[in-house]
Structures are given as structure tokens and as C-alpha cells.
Prior knowledge:
The structure holds two protein chains of two kinds.
Chain A: H1 5-12, H2 27-63, H3 67-91, H4 100-138, H5 141-153, E1 159-160, E2 163-164, H6 165-180, H7 182-212
Antiparallel strand pairs in A: 1-2
Helix pairs in contact in A: 2-3, 2-4, 2-7, 3-4, 4-6, 4-7
Chain B: H1 3-10, H2 14-24, H3 28-44, H4 55-80, H5 88-91, H6 100-109, H7 114-124, H8 129-136, H9 143-160
Amino acid sequence: xxxxxxxxxxxxxxxxxxxxxxxxxxxxxxxxxxxxxxxxxxxxxxxxxxxxxxxxxxxxxxxxxxxxxxxxxxxxxxxxxxxxxxxxxxxxxxxxxxxxxxxxxxxxxxxxxxxxxxxxxxxxxxxxxxxxxxxxxxxxxxxxxxxxxxxxxxxxxxxxxxxxxxxxxxxxxxxxxxxxxxxxxxxxxxxxxxxxxxxxxxxxxxxxxxxxx
Amino acid sequence: xxxxxxxxxxxxxxxxxxxxxxxxxxxxxxxxxxxxxxxxxxxxxxxxxxxxxxxxxxxxxxxxxxxxxxxxxxxxxxxxxxxxxxxxxxxxxxxxxxxxxxxxxxxxxxxxxxxxxxxxxxxxxxxxxxxxxxxxxxxxxxxxxxxxxxxxxxxxxxxxxxx
Lengths: 213, 163
């Protein structure tokens, strides 16, 4: 060997034509598929986690002696899962023979629709969680004992169903706030779970639009 | 991958990807597939880049990982469909570059084991022993000896090929 391998390597790439990047084919199809697969995978995991959480709450509340509260919370969370599963089955109906741009556009529209549906749902769910959980505890033996002591100390308090009215108003006000801010709260929660994949979806769509223009 | 991301974060480093993919592929078709897969993987994992190393080091790492994974897959497939695979000689692309010496060097590099190929490519790219060790996930103390052994092996291959 006359030249050292180091020399061959250096000289071999001196000519700029030596390293021409090949054209990328079908990359957007692959990226679309990857992004949607990832979105569905996270969605599935999320629904499984909610269902597991629902069972844990049910068992926990039954053990704590609050079965009625547990069943109601379980039903609410089951509603979340059923709605999610229904929406997930809709994405499978999107025609995969569409161009990757149209396909990803349809997926994006589906995502926006699901988010809007969940936001409406959480306007009811968030306050319902707060009210069921709080009233569940207040109407249990723990709440009875607590309010008995409070009323013994302040017998002049105005009460509704044995609970100081100010407490009832406070929790109703808080539940109202939860309903009012359901959108931003849900969005925050959504970003924690799906933030990255949504960003990828936006990037992909922006990119495809840029290429089309 | 945004078009911008490809232009600004991958294309300036395309040389790295090309050099690595060439060492793990025998045909232009395979090379283009590997190149594409590396680009896709860089885009997929861009959020995992923690800036603890240079972006180029990250690209080396991903390129090597992707090539090694694809090669492993290909080997498994070839085992399953041994009767369908073409004879190696019929598909080898030894004219990927205009410079004949570099084609011959690549031919020799392809005779090495997968990891040795990675080590020598990084050495030729003037990476330090520590960087080579970091990228391939090994002890830096052994790198020098390993490179020496690989270079001897390459010399033998060159001699055997009458270069």
C-alpha cells in the first residue's frame, strides 16, 4: 500500500462532489405514519392509565368506607375512557390511501375535534370530581364528626344539610372556577402527555404546507 | 421533520451520514435506504438531544446505531430467505466515489466486523479515543490497541487485493 489509509481518506473527500446527499424519498409518508402511530400509542396508554386509576379509586374509596363516592368517580372516569375509545376508533376510518398531506390534515382535524370534545366534557367532569369527592367526604362519618365539632364551637353558623353554608358556597365557587378554567387546565394536562407529539404533528403539517406553496 | 430542520441540522452533516452508510452497505439502493432511515431517526430523536455533546457527535452515534440495526435486520432476513439472496459479488457497488482509492479503502473497511468498521470510521474522522469510546460505548483504554489491530488488518486486506 503506497498511501496511508489516513491520507486516502482525507484526499478521497477533498472533492466536494464526493459527498452528495441522496434524495429523500417517501420521507413524509414515513414521518406521518410514525407520528400518527405514536399519537395512538400514547392515547392508548393514557386510556389504560385512566382505567387503572379508576379501579384504584374504586377500591380505595370502598376500603375507606366511601363506596358511593367511589362508584360515582369510577363512572365519571369510565365515561372518559369510553369517549376516548370511541374517538380512537374514528381515526381508523380515515382513508389511508389519501396523500400524506391530506392524511395528516385529516388527523390534525380529528385531534382538534377530540380536544374540543374533551374540553366540553371536562367543563362538567372537573367540577363533578371536586363536588363528588368533597361532598362524599363531608357526608361520610369523617365529615359528620368534623362538622359536629365545628358547630359545637360556632353554633350560630348557617347550615345547609348539616354543612356550614360558607363551606358549601366555597366548594361550589371552586367547582365553578374549575368549570370556567376547564379549557386551560385540560390544555396543560394535554401538553404534559401529548406535547411532543403534537409539536411534531404541527411541524409536519407546516412543513408539508410550505412545500406545497 | 421540518424542511428547515433537514436543511439546517442534517444537510450540513450529510457527509458524516454518507461516510458511515457507505461502510455498511454494498449497493446504492441499500445506501439510499440507510441514509433515509438515519435522517428519519435523527428527526425522531432530536428532542432527546441534551446538548451534552456536539450535534455532530449525536449524528455519528445515531448513524452508527441505525446502520448496525439495519445490518442486523438484513442479516436476519437473509438467513430466513437464504435461497432468495443474490450472490454478494453481483450486488457489490465498488464505484460509489469518483476516487478509486477511497472505493478500495471502503471495500477493505467492509471486510471488517461491524464494530471495527465504526471504530476505524471514527478514527479516520479524527475523533479522539475518548469520543470514539463514548460513541460506541466502550472503554477508551482499549481504543488505541484496537485501532492498531484494525489498521494492520486493513493493510493485509489491501495487500491481499493487490493494491
